Amino acid sequence: MFLPEAQLKDTIIEILREDEKSISGINRELDKKGIKLHKLVLTGYLRSLADLGVLQEREIPPSKVYSTTASFSKDIYTIIGDAVRAIEDDPREHNKTALYIFQTLFMRPIFLAELLRAGMDEPFGMTNVEGDKRTEARRVLTKSGIKLPNKDPAYYLSEEQTKMSYEKVRLAVLEELALQITSSYRLRKATKQTKLL
After folding, report:
1. pTM for this model (two decimals)
2. Which residues of the chain fall short of a pLDDT of 70?
3. CA 86/CA 98 separation, integer angstroms
4. Which CATH architecture describes the domain 5-72?
5. Would you call 159 helix, strand, or coil by DSSP?
6. What angle do CA 189, 105, 67 make, to 5 degrees?
7. Residue ranges covered by each domain of the chain
8. CA nearest 68: which of 129, 16, 124, 138?
9. Tell me, what's the pLDDT at 27?
């Protein structure tokens, strides 16, 4: 079965999110999902992911077990959703803030399924993007191995609506992510302020 590399990596991370597993255990879980890989191919792929720091490899004789590393245990949607909720005080602004961050990060309209993956609700009062822009955005996700419901709406906030309102929060979220992903909180001066003013 052909599987884009990004989708295979995400599937393996999802399998390991709950608990560490051996190569055989991972192979069984992939089989259940309809993904057939030769054990030697899977072994090489897992070792590569460990070399890249995506997975942790641990030897428990007679086998090796794999688990996710802290920085790869969540996907970009979950990480940004969590950061938006931590930084933005007003829950009514979470959906629009997340939408703005995703659209500036990915440079395309954002689908409802992506917002739901970030733990957001459907953004009411947003313009639903149709036509070529929606088709092109869908093509990008399909190429990346992300499946969307056929009629999933796509949203895009105009710059006039958002630049002033969300840019400060976007920068704060990206700073938070940079510190989180690199485990660099210890380098930041301790302050009492944790939320945006």
Report:
1. 0.58
2. 1-6, 70-74, 159-165, 180-186, 189-197
3. 12
4. Orthogonal Bundle (1.10)
5. helix
6. 70
7. 5-72, 76-184
8. 16
9. 93
